[in-house]
Design a protein that fits this description.
Elements lengths: L5 H22 L9 H36 L8 H9 L6 H45 L9 H55 L2 H9 L1
Helix pairs in contact: 1-2, 1-5, 2-4, 2-5, 4-5
Length: about 220
């Protein structure tokens, strides 16, 4: 039995669980360190990149799910994306032209999926940049010349702890959001592969046979 919008349902459930876990961590107070001024600014940049990648993934998954639904009808609705794709691939575009059409289609689908992966990878680099900034902040407060003064030592320790907090939290946030977006990316990849397979099957199905299936 074919379930409509199954890919979208999986996407929604996955991310609902993810945001629920974040909210639970917030209620437990595990994210309090994230809301420090310097840390929050860097984490906000990382989260903005994650939100961009997640929005792209959501759009791609929605379109993929709609196309799979249209293909399940046997004869896609005229004017739909999948109908236009099949029209470009079917006769009179046979022979080498059809092969080139499939190659172009694979490249286009791969490009759409790769954008999400590249965005996910950028989260790791943003986390590492936050790590470097955190270490710079931590070391900026270290002054060996005043290490014998108790007041200055207290300030140095406070700066050191603040810098290390920035480094650790930005690294952790970047890594977690990277894994989260990669899981969504894998889901998109599986849906895209299924769509490409269905397009190949629909292309190899004679038009008359499809029309007979719809009528009968």
């Amino acid at each position: 039995m074919y379930y409509r919008y199954l890919l979208v349902v999986r996407f929604v459930l996955l991310n609902a669980v993810g945001f629920s876990l974040i909210f639970a961590a917030y209620l437990q107070g595990w994210l309090d360190g994230v809301f420090a001024v310097t840390t929050f600014e860097l984490v906000l940049i990382i989260f903005a990149a994650f939100a961009y990648g997640l929005a792209l993934c959501a759009i791609r998954i929605w379109r993929t799910s709609v196309n799979l639904n249209d293909l399940s009808l046997g004869a896609p609705p005229p004017g739909s994306d999948i109908a236009q794709i099949l029209n470009r691939l079917r006769p009179p575009h046979t022979g080498p032209g059809a092969i080139d059409g499939f190659a172009a289609l694979r490249l286009d689908m791969s490009h759409r999926v790769a954008i999400v992966r590249h965005t996910a990878n950028s989260l790791v680099f943003l986390g590492l940049i936050g790590t470097v900034i955190g270490f710079i902040i931590a070391l900026s407060g270290v002054n060996p010349a005043t290490s014998t003064d108790a007041d200055n030592v207290a300030k140095m320790v406070a700066t050191l702890i603040g810098g290390m907090s920035v480094a650790l939290y930005t690294t952790l946030v970047g890594a977690i959001l990277h894994v989260w977006l990669i899981i969504n990316h894998r889901m998109l990849v599986s849906g895209t592969v299924a769509l490409l397979s269905e397009i190949v099957i629909a292309y190899n199905t004679p038009v008359d046979a499809v029309e007979d299936d719809v009528r009968g």
